[in-house]
Amino acid sequence: MTTLAGKVAIVTGGASGIGYAMVQNLLEAGAKVGVADLNEEKLKELEQQHKGELLGVVTNVTKEEDIKNLVNKTVEAFGGLDIAFNVAGASKSGAIIDQPEEDWNFTVDLCLKGVFLSLKHEAKYMKEHGGGAIVNVSSLNAHVPMHYGAAYSSAKAGVEMLTKNAALEMSKHNIRVNAILPGLVSTPLTSGLTDVDAINEAYLERIPMERAGDPKEIAGPALFLVSEEASYVNGASLLVDGGWAVTGYPDLSKFITENRP
Ligand SMILES: NC(=O)c1ccc[n+]([C@@H]2O[C@H](COP(=O)([O-])OP(=O)(O)OC[C@H]3O[C@@H](n4cnc5c(N)ncnc54)[C@H](O)[C@@H]3O)[C@@H](O)[C@H]2O)c1
């Protein structure tokens, strides 16, 4: 088990799903955590459960002042910042020819600008204080387009490239930046789709492991990326998708008989 005793972390979007699993892992590893989210009620509940180890900071990641406040409050409470997981995300879907500009802006602002602003202010602090490690949450959709998901997929592809640029710029400040690209994960974000049997089946047909991932199965690899074990991993994109990205070629196994040479 990775030890992060004495370390301080930030998780954006940490009140639910993948972000929440990351918060749990960080606490178990001994880190103190500043959790950023819009969900004030859940943040208060988490603070009560983890007094002295977790600080909830109501934050809209699309607002630069909120991000500055998040970094300041976390540093004030716990004395530093070593690790950040930039997770907050959601989308408004729509066909390209019908998508209102405000839905595009909502999605790209949250998924891409939100990561930019978080990264900017986390790294600014880390640069002045000896370095750190940052993981940005992109998506399988950075590589695989989806119907009605142009804004989301484009933003997530942007997060992957932003991560590479950050790794290039920040290595000299002893800051490592990597991206994690989840496939289908069971969270409140996806339950509206996967609760519909026909949609769930359509998903599972694409996933060699024939199931969605659990948020813990994303949080574990993310923890590895910020740990000492990953000290030479930088600018990488780690797909965590149950093998989804290797599908697409026709399944020829059903045509192969035992008599085949
Ligand atoms: N669940 C999946 O299948 C999946 C797959 C690939 C990528 N992802 C990405 O993983 C990340 C987490 O997704 P999840 O499935 O855990 O979703 P989730 O809905 O369970 O959690 C997202 C959290 O982000 C918070 N949030 C939303 N807008 C915010 C804002 N403006 N400022 C601060 N916080 C905000 C929400 O309140 C929520 O707590 C997202 O970036 C998502 O795009 C998810």
UniProtKB/TrEMBL annotation:
<dbReference type="InterPro" id="IPR020904">
    <property type="entry name" value="Sc_DH/Rdtase_CS"/>
</dbReference>
<dbReference type="GO" id="GO:0016491">
    <property type="term" value="F:oxidoreductase activity"/>
</dbReference>
<dbReference type="InterPro" id="IPR002347">
    <property type="entry name" value="SDR_fam"/>
</dbReference>
<protein>
    <submittedName>
        <fullName>SDR family NAD(P)-dependent oxidoreductase</fullName>
        <ecNumber>1.1.1.-</ecNumber>
    </submittedName>
</protein>
<keyword id="KW-0560">Oxidoreductase</keyword>
<dbReference type="InterPro" id="IPR036291">
    <property type="entry name" value="NAD(P)-bd_dom_sf"/>
</dbReference>
<comment type="similarity">
    <text>Belongs to the short-chain dehydrogenases/reductases (SDR) family.</text>
</comment>
<dbReference type="Pfam" id="PF13561">
    <property type="entry name" value="adh_short_C2"/>
</dbReference>
